[in-house]
Amino acid sequence: MNTPYANNQSTRNSSVRVFRQQGKAWHWVLGGVVLAGATFWGWKHLDSGAASDAAASAPGGASAASGGDGKRSGPGGPGGNKPQPVSAQAVRNRDIRVTVGAIGTITANNTAVAHVQVSGVLQSLNFKEGQMVQAGQTLAQIDPRPFEAAVMQAEGNLLRDKATLDNAYIDQQRYRNLVAKEAVPKQQLDTQDALVKQLEGTVRADQGALNTAKLQVTYAKVIAPISGRVGLKQVDLGNVVQPGDANGIVSIAQTRPIALVFSVPSSNLERINARLQAHQALPVEAWDRDGKHKLATGVIASTDNAIDLSTDTIKLKAVFANEDDALFPNQSVSVKLQLDKMTDTLAIPSAALTRGAQGFYVYAVNADGTVSPKVVTPGPVDGDWTAVEGPLKAGDKVVTDGLDRLRDGSKVDVIAAENTKDRQGERKSDRGDHSDHGDRKSDHPDKSPDAHQQASR
Questions:
Q1: CB of 94 within 8 A of CB of 345?
Q2: CA gyration radius for the chain?
Q3: b vs e for 1-19, b when ≥16 Cβ sit within 10 Å of the residue's Cβ?
Q4: What is the pLDDT of residue 343?
Q5: CA-CA distance, 398 to 351, in Å (whole number)?
Q6: Dihedral pair phi/psi, residue 306, rounded to 5°
Q7: 275-294 core/surface letters (b: 16 or more CB in 10 A; e: else)
Q8: Are 371 and 412 in contact (CB under 8 A)?
Q9: Which of 258, 269, 282 is nearest to 308 (CA)?
Q10: Which residues, at least 6 apart from 350, have a Cβ–Cβ distance to it below 8 Å?
Q11: Contact status, residue 87 vs residue 400, Cβ threshold 8 Å
Q12: Which helix (H) or strand (E) holds 122?
């Protein structure tokens, strides 16, 4: 039976259940807020502690980072207390060569193909592929027997016709005596004179045939037309060779001396012609393609007769003795052509030259151990040295290594270049040849990787 009292009691019980469920939800929300706050506080505390440790472990501690008075300054700035290690070299007065660089190709001074001049069976090859041969040296031998037989035949014909001619001479003298005595008609003497001349022509033709036959015998030997290096053989033993063979027996390239052909801008032509007309040698250096090793030194021999309009360059030909065979035909080399020489000019190491907004400049080391930038005008470059004009004099020291850490007035500690390389090598070996930023090991082994990640962040 449903009474009003029962209905009120049921409503009151359901309200209590709802209240209890809401109370449990508030407990979960409150717990989540507390947990999030604790996590945030712990993270902030860990971040600040790692940053403090990293700052403490840095060279010079907090004072190095702030400059001692809380003001931040760069490592080489005026506020830094520690001088920056750099390498420096003295400015010199020296000779500087004015050179022009190019890329050239080595070519044989002369090239010839040894061809046979008669047809026959190849009996022997008297050379090794790649060897040096001299002009006149026998390279190959063709079967000479057919040509020797032709010589014998020509000699027989010559002997026969000479005998006939000798008999005609005797008859001619006899007819002359008889004509003088009017014993025979003069017409018979004239006929004998004509016969003698005919036989003289026959003997001369026989002599020419003999000479031709002997020449064919000499042609059975293939002779080197020039001195040089032979290539790969183009025919094998036992083959029948002919004068019309396109490849011949072997090719020969004259490499002592050897030539170099390269192009330079036509703007240099006036200076080149002036030196050549004055019979002054123009030195040329041939380097490997990387420009690290000098292969040979030669001189300019001639120039082309016209400028290439498509590139505005002029071709030059240089000659090298090449006694050590350092140069090879069709080899590509780097070329340095010396046009002039500046004597006793002010020069600095090329590594000291820097370019900025104000132009080219160097850092000069002052007497008080600081550096000052000096604006200079660079000139020709000769190897590791560059000719300059500017507020420098011989004996001044300029920084060659460590330029990126310097400013005007930075304090420096000049060390030898060898010591700098040794220290860099030690640092690389200590790092195991790893990068400073990516793979450097931690200075604090007691800290976790996460802590170091927070410190670097």
A1: yes
A2: 49
A3: eeeeeeeeeeeeeeeeeee
A4: 92
A5: 10
A6: -155, 155
A7: bbeeeeebbbbbbeeeeeee
A8: yes
A9: 269
A10: 381, 384, 385, 386
A11: yes
A12: strand 120-125
pLDDT of 82: 82
Query: What tokens appear for 47 in the block?
Result: 């971040």
The distance from CA 66 to its chain's CA centroid, rounded to whole angstroms, is 50
pLDDT of 441 strictly over 60:
no
Work out the angle at residue 234's Cα, subtended by the Cα atoms of residues 231 and 235, and round it to the nearest 5 degrees. Answer: 135
Q: Which two tokens stand for residue 136?
A: 């006149």
Phi and psi angles of residue 115, each rounded to the nearest 5 degrees, phi first = -105, 155
Which tens digits make up the pLDDT trace of 250-260?
Answer: 999 999 999 99
pLDDT band at residue 306 using 50, 70 and 90 as cut-offs: very high
Q: How many residues does the chain have?
A: 457
What pLDDT was estimated at residue 169?
94
Q: Where are the alpha helices (DSSP H) in 240-348?
A: 269-277
* 272-289 pLDDT per residue, tens: 999 999 999 999 999 998
Q: Is 0.70 topped by the overall pTM? A: no
Which residue carries 């860990």 as its tokens? 46
For 419, residues 6+ apart whose C-beta sits below 8 A from its C-beta are none
